[in-house]
Specification:
Blueprint lengths: L1 E2 L2 E3 L5 E6 L1 E4 L2 E3 L4 E6 L2 E5 L7 E6 L5 E4 L2 E3 L4 E6 L10 E3 L2 E3 L9 E5 L5 E4 L2 E3 L11 E5 L2 E4 L4 E3 L8 E4 L15 E4 L4 E3 L10 E12 L2 E3 L11 E10 L4 E3 L9 E5 L3 E4 L22 E4 H9 L3 E4 L8 E3 L1 H7 L4 E2 L6
Parallel strand pairs: 1-4, 2-5, 3-6, 4-9, 5-10, 6-11, 9-12, 10-13, 11-14, 12-15, 13-16, 14-17, 15-18, 16-19, 17-20, 18-21, 19-22, 20-23, 21-23, 22-24, 23-25, 24-26, 25-27, 27-30, 28-29
Antiparallel strand pairs: 7-8, 28-32, 30-31
Length: 345
């Protein structure tokens, strides 16, 4: 099924393109409603009176694929792109190269979910916009999920809001503990990708997560700033058993408020003085492969975040306590660069 035209639903309406293979190259508008693109063998769409329909894929299809190269707009509503493939070797089941917009309105936040299922790869190189730019509105929700999740090129995921940031979840939620959010096996964020959940006026920064059960390579820009006129910084997490954050730019500061946090949570990590961190593939091609060597992070990347007003916390293994780093303490303790599992800085 392919849409190359223009489809507009009435307010609170639903636009659904369902089939074995689904592609949108045109324009779809469903203000305060739902746009759903889904590929699978058995698909159920439950229509709700408020326009926020629920999508379920109960059975996979052999060559399931969903692609968006056009524009989807559902301000105050939700956009759902979902695919479930029987082919575990399928390269990509969701490919988002176009523009998806579900901006928050005062009456309701926007929501964007891309889900490639337990065995699928979800790739994003386009725009996912769940911002809240109206006075009083907050950022919405963006979730990009699948077995493998890759943000490549100049992918932009933005859930910033006038009165506070929303949430951007890539590969999972906080420490992979949210049972309602599918955890990726591997997550890749390229160096030119941008993930934001800033407060734009007065309010707290939101939540930005990049999670992979086995490996997370996070090289892009991550931002959850507090509002320039007041509010605290938010939470940024980049975690996985093997973690590569070489070159990441992290901002969770607050000009008038309490600094936010950057959390790193691998199995084992070495803080490397004067180096570049893990041997990263930080370019345009996603790398979902782990490494036999322990994770490393450059002291320069940590200090850059600290100097930008972001607190940095590192926990390894199953440690319950976080290593809260301050600039002066960091400089004192960098002579001991090895951080074994369950050891605090």
């Amino acid at each position: 099924m392919v849409n190359q035209g223009s489809i507009t639903a009435a307010e609170h309406g639903t636009v659904a393109l369902l089939g074995g293979s689904v592609r949108n190259d045109g324009t779809i508008v469903a203000t305060l409603g739902t746009t759903a693109l889904a590929s699978g063998g058995q698909i159920t769409l439950d229509l709700a009176g408020d326009g926020l329909s629920k999508l379920t894929i109960a059975q996979a299809a052999l060559d399931a694929e969903v692609a968006n190269g056009g524009a989807i707009i559902a301000d105050g509503g939700q956009v759902l792109l979902s695919a479930s493939s029987l082919d575990q070797l399928a390269a990509t089941v969701i490919n988002q190269t176009g523009s998806v917009r579900a901006r928050s309105l005062v009456e309701r936040n926007g929501r964007i979910v891309l889900d490639g299922g337990d065995g699928g790869t979800t790739l994003v190189s386009g725009i996912l916009d769940a911002t809240g730019t109206q006075p009083g509105s907050t950022g919405g929700e963006i979730a990009v999920l699948g077995q493998h999740v890759g943000l490549t090129g100049s992918a932009t995921l933005d859930a910033s809001g006038y009165a506070g940031g929303g949430q951007v979840l890539v590969g999972g939620d906080y420490q992979g503990r949210n049972a309602s959010v599918r955890n990726a096996e591997a997550t890749f964020v390229g160096r030119d990708a941008s993930l934001r959940a800033d407060a734009l006026d007065i309010g707290n920064g939101g939540k930005v997560i990049a999670w992979g059960n086995q490996v997370t390579r996070a090289h892009g820009t991550f931002s959850a700033r507090g509002g320039p006129l007041g509010g605290n910084g938010g939470l940024i997490e980049t975690s996985g058993k093997f973690l590569d954050t070489a070159g990441a730019r992290v901002f969770a500061g607050a000009p008038i408020g309490v600094a936010g946090e950057w959390l790193l949570d691998p199995i084992d990590i070495t803080i490397q003085v004067g180096g570049t961190g893990s041997s990263a593939n930080a370019g345009s091609a996603p790398n979902f492969v782990s490494s036999a060597s322990p994770s490393t992070i450059s002291d320069g990347d940590i200090e850059a975040a600290l100097n930008a007003g972001t607190s940095v916390s590192i926990t390894t293994g199953n440690a319950a306590a976080l290593a809260n780093l301050g600039t002066s303490r960091l400089r004192q303790e960098l002579s001991s660069t090895r951080l074994p599992a369950a050891t605090r800085l």
